Amino acid sequence: MHLMRKLKFMPLLIEICKRVSTCEKREIKQLGKLLSSVIKTILNFSSIRENRNYMYQTNRLMPLLELFNWCLNRTTQVFYGIDFLPSLF
Fold this sequence. Notes:
This protein has helices spanning 2-6, 9-18, 28-45, 49-57, 61-72, 76-80, 85-88. The two termini are 21 Å apart. The relative contact order is 0.16. The protein has seven helices and no strands. The chain has one domain (2-88). Helices cover 71% and strands 0% of the residues. The protein is globular. With 89 residues, the protein is an all-alpha fold.
């Protein structure tokens, strides 16, 4: 997991999370599938206390909060189709 920080892998995953606000409507479904994998990877990464501290200290949580806010502001039909929401929460 330390290797993920060294290789700057986490900033890349966070950048993917930021894309949801600029994504076109027709691409949301494909991005949702990608986000599901990204959120699972971040969840595994954050399971170690040192990595959670890294996420706090580098302010990597803000894009995740913005993604969470975006998910909560979707229509009901889209909201229930977001399978990564519990992990994000």
